[in-house]
Amino acid sequence: MKVIFLVGVIQAVFLALLIFSKRKKSAADYVLATWMLFYGIHLLFQYFRITGLVFKYEHLLGIDTYFPILQGAFLFVYVSVLTNGSGKFKKSYLYHGVLFLAISIYCAFDFYSLGANEKLNYFLSMEEAPPIFYRLTLMLNFFVGPIYVLWSLLLLRKYKKQIANNFSYTEQINLNWLRYILYTSVAIWGSVIIDGFFGEYIRANLYEFVDEITFILVTLTIFILGYFGFKQPAIYTDDYAVKAQIANKKLHKKQKINADSFQRRAERYGKSGLKKTETEEHVNKLMLYMENEKPYLDSKLSLKQLAAFLELSTNHTSQIINESLNKNFFDFVNDYRINEVKECLSDSKFSHYTLLAIAYECGFNSKSSFNSLFKIKTGLTPSEYQKTLKA
User: What domains are there in the chain, each with its CATH number?
Assistant: First the structure.
């Protein structure tokens, strides 16, 4: 058991340093690295507790009591930064630490400031008959975390819809790995609740088993979270609009997008709905752009790029695609890619290309997404479709 704690501590600190060492760190990286350090400190104090060091050095007593409250907050803030549409850390996220801060300030005057012997006696007396304040706040320890986990799951569910409306690909941005972390968190909090509420009613050997399972899961979570978090690229970055303008300048050397005009129009459309005539005009412009310039061949095409071309806000561009074409952005772009693949397969010039090479040429950036989307749209696998052409 002691070894599990030490492995978790070393692992958390190592992953934090690894993330901090990244050259191009996003706001999510800073949150994750700080969270990893906090995880390490939390497990270190748990190690002090099970080895009895907290009773040898009394001033360590109670410091980590309310750390679980921050675990849930860190999880929620990390998910929020990854999925909030800007990739930035918002000042409002700091409010999620207010509860922990308020409790800590109270404890600083009521408990932490006591002398060593007084602190030990007070701590032992609280275990027998805790004052009402500590009873209530210790209840928060068990329920705040699960609330944040459920809240984070709702954010990921909402984000899944955002992907379809903002991106033409899902690789490295679908955050499926984070969903598994949340499922593991549900198991961890479940064992914590069992440990806390039912520990005194179950046999000692079963109690120790539940405790060990809990921290094995925590150690495993730290490794998976740190590993995939380190590899996770920033999803929403400021360079999308820049990339969009550069791409459009290359495709339309004679047609330049005026930045001030774009800003004024985006603000105007952001406050009022598009008129029917304006919608039709933008739909026609969009369709001509897709057919003539083929921006979908860019595997990282985003809604912001199309919005820049139409000189509209992303909201109104999404509205045009959703309402006028009855598709989300993901399906809209990938329909063009699949049609492009079909044309290439029918063209003898591409007969020496492999299916995967054609898929990459047409804007797909992974074999799995190409195969699954092609099957969904055509009812056939790419190889089956190719055989029908030969027949």
Answer: 2-231 (1.20.1070), 239-390 (1.10.10.60)
